[in-house]
Every structure is written in structure tokens, then in C-alpha cells.
Amino acid sequence: MNDGIRTQPERLQSIIRRRDTLLGPGYQFSETIPLEFVSGFGAHLIDREGNDYLDAYNNVQGVGHAHKHVANAVSRQIAAVNTDTRYPQELLVDYAERLLATFPAALSKLSFPCTGSEANDLAVRVARFRTGGEGIIATRWAFHGRTREVASFSPMLGAGSPLGPNVRLIAAPDPRIVGSDCSLEDYMRNQVRSAIEDLERHGYRLAALIADSAFTSDGIFTHPVGFMKAVVDEVHAAGGVYIADEVQSGFAQLGDSMWGFSRHEVVPDIVTMGKAMGNGFPISGVAFRPEVSDEFGQKVSYFNTLGGRSVSIAAASAVLDVFEEENVRERVLTNGTALRAELEALTRNSPYVGEIRGSGLYLGMEIVKDIKTLEPDSTRTEAIIKDLRDRRVLISRTGPAGNVLKIRPPVAFNAADVSRFLETFAVVAKHRL
Ligand SMILES: Cc1ncc(COP(=O)(O)O)c(C=O)c1O
Description:
Blueprint: H1 3-6, H2 10-22, E1 37-41, E2 44-47, E3 52-55, H3 68-78, H4 90-100, E4 109-111, H5 116-131, E5 135-139, H6 148-151, E6 167-170, H7 184-201, E7 206-212, H8 228-237, E8 241-245, E9 270-273, E10 285-288, H9 290-299, H10 310-325, H11 328-347, E11 353-359, E12 362-367, H12 378-390, E13 393-394, E14 396-398, E15 404-407, H13 415-432
Parallel strand pairs: 3-13, 5-6, 5-7, 7-8, 8-9
Antiparallel strand pairs: 1-2, 2-3, 4-10, 9-10, 11-12, 12-15, 14-15
Bound molecules: pyridoxal-5'-phosphate.
């Protein structure tokens, strides 16, 4: 137990001790000094003492913690029936129609696993079946999930989690690493081409390129857009498919549209989604072009006991209701744009802010030791997160060096939340930035 935890109330220390004794391997807390929340609303979490924390980190309860409409839909459905996809359910087909209507028409089939990892696992399985290849291309610090297959192309998991021999990594689209004689588009295309050649040299045909549409674990790279077309052309020329991982960037988190890939004006072959889909209820999705998935469907059955049950679908349908009723996407764009502009103004003269990146309510602030060398400063990054937490504002960090502040509130974040965030950030920035 760390010293910080020893300063917590005895009751909380006891929970932590019992948890250490009981839980399986690898569990971690979000905070160095864990917080125990007992209720929530909107982008607010309330601890046992009644303190109100502003949540600018947990985007899973996207439309808001304990949202009444979602809670009521789930309670009603769980008190009625909770059948699986082996039984006809009107709610499920209604939901599938509504969700698919948010995608380009080419993506017209939908499957329902429970988690983002399962969604990516299924996506890659279908890609392998369709292409007959096994090669996977992902970005250098990507995270796509934790099944054995998906962990094999999730380098963010670190040295203890081996990458597959069929996996090749490319750098994330950071325009600063591209030389002046080359465009970002050419740089990304060349990387993909080399990865495909290397895979082939080792006897692997390409199955898929998978990319988080905001490259969030790589450090959040949302701009510029447009280079994906060249990348996807290379993938298709090699017989592979393009999987857009929208587990982080989907459900309007980036503000300018419902799905992150649309910013690049390329229609993926497969799209995976999860997290905010059920506002914390376990449901994820995989949208397919039918020509990619149909043969798999005919020759290999798909069933997921807990995926697509009536209660999960009720939660996910209620989320879409809220999106429509509260104009969520527009709100994200307005509040995200205001938040970013103010953060830029606040840190304009700081020698420690390398760059502010992101879109909508998914923002990253790169913290460096020196603005000229851009050497990462993970110690200062951690101190900023702690200072904010001490003032009851929650954020986190991302990127290979852990030096990018991850400001990723639920899409419920409203104008008052933006103001509170900025007031608190300004206080911290005064002595840290
Ligand atoms: C981009 C991305 N894909 C997939 C996953 C895996 O989702 P899950 O934890 O629901 O399995 C995550 C989880 O953080 C993620 O960030």
C-alpha cells in the first residue's frame, strides 16, 4: 500500500486491502490515491463524504453518470425479459436500424459482442476469413483490447505482452516526424507499404490494418485529416481490409461527427465500437460491409451469450434517444471548441506545453521539458494530474512517454463544466506551466 493510501479513511484502506487479497492478477486503480464514488450525475462523481468531483476522464458514461432515461429503460427491461439474439426481439432490430443509419450506407450489417476487445477480436477474425491472410498492421503504441488475439497487436500493453509474429507496427500520424521533403500522406502510405512488404517477406499476407480513429493511446493525433485514403488504398491493393476502431473516438466524442473515421472521408470495411455505446452497460458493436462479412456468416456461426441481450439493447437505445433529444453532437462540438480555445490561451506562453491536440471532447496536452527539444516530461504531467485531482477535477494521461494530458470527459460535459474545468486548470497552470 503506498503512503498516500495510508492517509485515507480506515474504511477505504480496508476495502483496498481486501481487494488486494481477493482479486485476480493485474488490477489497478485509476488514481494513485483511490477515490470511492457512491453516486453521480452528468459529468460529476460524488464521494462518500459528499464531495463533488468534475469528471473529465470517464467517457464510458457518455450521456452522463446515472442518466435517468438510461436507468429507467434498463430497469423496465430487466423487470420484463432479457432474451438473447437466438430469440427475435423487435427492440434489437429497431436499434440496429437506428445505429446503422448513423453510418455510411455501405456499412449495413451489425454484430453485438459485449466489450471493445471482443469487437476487435471478431473484426480481425472476419478479416482473416475474408482475406485468407494473417498479417495485421497497427500503430506503434496502439491499444485495441485484451483477448489473446487482440493483445497480440496492442503494443501499449508493454513488453510483458508479446506481439504476434504476424504483426507490424507503423508510427502514428504525428506531422512533426515527417521530413520537409515528404507529405504526411506519403509518409503514412510508405510506412504501410513497407509493413506489407515485410509481412510478405515473412510469409504473411495482409488481413487488416486496424487504427483507432483518433490514435488516442499513441498520444491523440486528430489533425491533419485526409491521409487515410492513401493508406487504405495500399491496404486494399494488398488484399487487406481497413478496420476503424471507434471504441474511443465513436459516439460523437470528437464532436464533428458521430464517428471519427468520417473526418478522413474514407469508409472503412469494418468498424468496431464499445465503451459509451450502453452508457456503461456491457454492449459493443461491429459494423461490416456485407461483402466482407457475409461469407463468414454463412460458414461460421456467431453467437455471444451476453451480447445483444434485451437489457443491453434497451440501454443502447436509450443512449441514442438522449443523443437525439439533447443534440449531443452539437453540444460536444461547441463545448469542446471552447475548452480547447481557452486551454490554448491559458498555456500560450508556457515553455512546457509542446502541443495541444484533439477534437471535440477528446483533447491532449503534450507536456515537455523544453519546448525546443520536445523532450517528454512525465513527472510534470503526473504532478498536474495530481494537482487537479486535489482540486476535485479528474483527468489522466496517454502516449508512449505518458506525457500527454488526456482530457476526455463524458459527452454530457456542459458549459458550466467547461468553466469549472478551466478555472481549476488555470490555478494549476499558474505554478506548473
Ligand atoms: C481504442 C480501444 N479499443 C478497444 C478497447 C478495448 O475495450 P474493452 O476494454 O471494452 O475491451 C479499448 C479500451 O480502452 C480502446 O481504448
